[in-house]
Amino acid sequence: MPQQPNSAALSNPFPPQQAYLAIEQQPVNAAEQRRLLALRRHVQAHTHTTDLRGLAGAVKKLLGPGYEVGCGSAHIWVQRAGEQQRLAVVADRLTTAYRDWFEPLPDPPATSRTSRRRLSGGLLDAGPEQS
Fold it and tell me: How far apart are CA 59 and CA 19, in angstroms?
């Protein structure tokens, strides 16, 4: 008897996402700070989702007029009306690493101190063979 294909996998093509809010610019005033903090609390209360676009309506409502909100399947961006730079982003913690405006840049990863060394064929190769 042939087995039925797993229909659950087809009904939800997106993998689970863990939503978080990164505020990329300093709030311009106390009112904007309150709106962004309310948005952060809302996102933290709805972290597990299959499609971040489901949070876009709440983002628009919590921020109110004066903000542009757009989204893709893996993020929601927020800009102040008339500005080009992004104010904040709601993204998936499993696939992105946006940071808040006040967080320092991470230290760069350590690299080889010898510029000639490279990984080749799974073994460390010191460059051209010396005969």
Answer: 12
Does residue 53 surpass a pLDDT of 80? yes
Distances (CA, A) of 38 to 9, 14, 21: 34, 27, 11
Phi-psi label, residue 78: left if phi above 0, alpha if psi -120 to 50, beta otherwise: beta
Tally the residues of the chain. Answer: 131
Instruction: Tell me: pLDDT of 125 over 50.
Output: no
Residue 46 lies in a domain: yes
Q: What pLDDT, in 10s, does the model give residues 60-93?
A: 999 999 999 998 768 899 999 999 999 999 999 8
Please state, in angstroms and rounded to a whole number, the distance separating the CA atoms of residues 22 and 110. Answer: 26
CA distance 73 to 119: 36
How many domains would you assign to the chain? Answer: 1
Q: Which domain holds residue 61?
A: 14-92
Answer yes or no: is 115 within a domain. Answer: no
